Amino acid sequence: TPMNEKPPRIVVNGQPIAEDAIVFELSRLVQFYSQHLPEEQVRAQLPQLRQRAIDQAIGSRLLIEEAFRRDLSISDEEVDQRLAEMVERSGGRDKFDALLQKQKLTEAALREQIRRGRRVDKLVDQVVAEAPEPTEAEIRAHFESHREEYNRPERVLAQHILIKPSGESAAERAQAQERLGAIRQRVLDGAAFSDLASDHSDCPSGREGGSLGWFSRGMMVEAFDRAAFALDKGGLSDIIETPFGYHLIYKTDHEEPRPADFDEARENIRDFLRHARRGERLAAFVSGLRAKATVEIDGAPTPAGPDVER
Description:
Elements: E1 10-12, E2 15-17, H1 19-34, H2 39-44, H3 46-69, H4 76-90, H5 93-102, H6 107-128, H7 136-145, E3 155-163, H8 170-188, H9 193-200, E4 211-216, H10 222-230, E5 240-242, E6 245-255, H11 262-292, E7 295-297, E8 300-301
Helix pairs in contact: 1-3, 3-6, 3-11, 4-5, 4-6, 7-11
């Protein structure tokens, strides 16, 4: 666990917060930052992330209490629907029941958790509904000051087939190349690339006919990147070797770089500004709750602290 030191004992309005809740918040933060920063930077920021995890656990508890205080009603139908979605996501009733058993949870306890979560969702919706919608002028101003971010880079649309050698030996590598060479010949003879990708590719993209969607320079490993951008539209690559194995690339489209277009960016900017405002509104609301709450960390009262993020 990222929280290698014991989480503090936190009491909010006389009710202790479970250690698991703090560890959960920290794990979520570490997971999020690990997607965007190198491991050593995440490690260096652990003390700040620990503090944020504590603040978020406190904020979450205050929202649960406030939702309960407002007696926000959640119908049995809403709980039933959410439960049915969870059963479906688990892969059916049997797997779901096994999962409950593993987590030592009864269905009644889970229903109560769902109801509590939906109450908080409803409270948050009420709080953020008051956030003003971004105006056209604000959207335009954001676009003008962040124009660089909305430039469209040169990009490629491509499919690929990956064959991984079954081992590290020269014979196993040669065998993988041979397999891919035979597949390449079938494409040249007129077989559909998508079908061959579905049947043979060792990449999860095989399920989508080998489609990688649009990507710009630097998003793929170097040898793959170089080959994909060098190909003509409609071109088929030679066999490309990368640390993942051997690839065959079929390039379906290519777009030259182009400057930012306000009409294209408008809705993304609107969503970004709307999300930021709602976050600010929720943070201010939680700060208000915390200012009125009694919070003790390891037995010591704390002043009103920062906010929660959803």
